[in-house]
Amino acid sequence: MHTQAWKQTLRHHWSEGETFLKWLLFAGIIGVVVGGVSSAFYHCFHWATRAREANPWLLLLLPAGGAAIVLLYRLLGMEQDRGTNFVLVAVRENTPLRLRTAPLVFISTVITHLVGGSSGREGAILQIGGSISSKIGRWMGLDDKDSRVITMCGMSAAFSALFGTPLTAAVFAMEVVSVGVMYYAAIVPCAIAAITGLWVAQACQVPGTAYSLAGVPDLGPVSLLQTVVMGALFALLSILFCLMMHLAGHLYQRGFPNPVARGAAGGGVVIALTVLVWIWNPFSFDYNGAGEAVIHAAIEGQVRPEAFFLKILFTAATLGAGFKGGEIVPAFFTGATFGGTVAPLLGLDPSFGAGLGMVSVFCGVTNCPMTSLLMALELFGGGSRGMFTGQSLCLFAVSIAVSYMLSGYYGLYSEQKIVYSKFRPEFINRKANEDEPD
Q1: How far apart are alpha carbons 287 and 294 in whole angstroms?
Q2: Whole-number mean pLDDT of the chain?
Q3: CB 330 within 8 A of CB 118
Q4: pTM
Q5: DSSP 83
Q6: Residue-wise pLDDT tens digits, 299-310
Q7: 24: number of CA atoms within 13 Å, CB side?
Q8: CA distances, 181 to each of 41, 88, 106, 170 (Å)
Q9: How far apart are CA 387 and CA 393, in angstroms?
């Protein structure tokens, strides 16, 4: 009996070892493939941004760009595509993702930025990474559970390659699908895929994302109270952001039932908003595209008080009409400009407020507190102003936690499951925005 037990133990550990080695190999493959595609996406994305900035007349093509994206999806039988929501469903329910999603969202996001739509890049890259890795998993003949893990690997590799934040990327893929439940079985594959994707991106000269904050206070009763107030304000801003994103889509559908007309009309709305901003601030293109320059300016303490709301309007008008991209970089923009505006009113440095806003609004709209804390560490932890102290990082943790709790059950992704209550240890298992009125 004793010998039999030892044999069973050895077989068990041998099986675990095989699984470990299998995922080292599979995650490495996904990291290389998805990291390479993500690097190509980055360079095309920035080519489109530079071309638009050098040729402002391209904004006049916004209506044509919106219509073209809708027609492209229709041509390839993807009219019912729901973007990142499909990736979340693929992880939770092993719904297969079509490989054609990758080139479609790649091209459509580049078109969106070339003609001046307001969107980010992470929504596209999550779909690209998820669809490629899902297809590779099917080619490998993976079973139901392993297929979910390899899809998360693709999300991690893509996010890491584009932003240069491997810890954030690995945890985000495990945390975003089901709030309150972490897919810990995927921690090794996601970490390896994220690191490999980062290395491939660095080899392809994709720069990482990092900022140097000023005025980060030490932890104390006053700074703690100030941060709690900031976190509550960021929670309200997160709710506003999500409501505006969803409301815009509903309004477009009611006003323009035809998707092609909707895309063209959305382009016209963005042009009208751009002209209104020009009247106020001549030849300002701050709200077209991702707005990364404005985020950097906010971190340096240079903000305009109206910027956060205008970015929400531009992004809702763009994505609600059917343009492609993502909401995360616009959420960074919104949080940074709002935080930099409000922080001095509470006696905090605007640079610190902008940094708090970036990660806290990200948490409020994605419901991912652990990801947000790691993001704060990776985005702001280094730089010329030195590393965080443990106590100053606690202030970011408090703001993120307050934003997570008080933002309620809103979110950018309607297929995100809220498994456990944010207010008590209670199983609720509901979707984000479930009680939101149409």
Answers
A1: 9
A2: 88
A3: yes
A4: 0.92
A5: T
A6: 998 988 999 999
A7: 6
A8: 31, 13, 30, 15
A9: 10
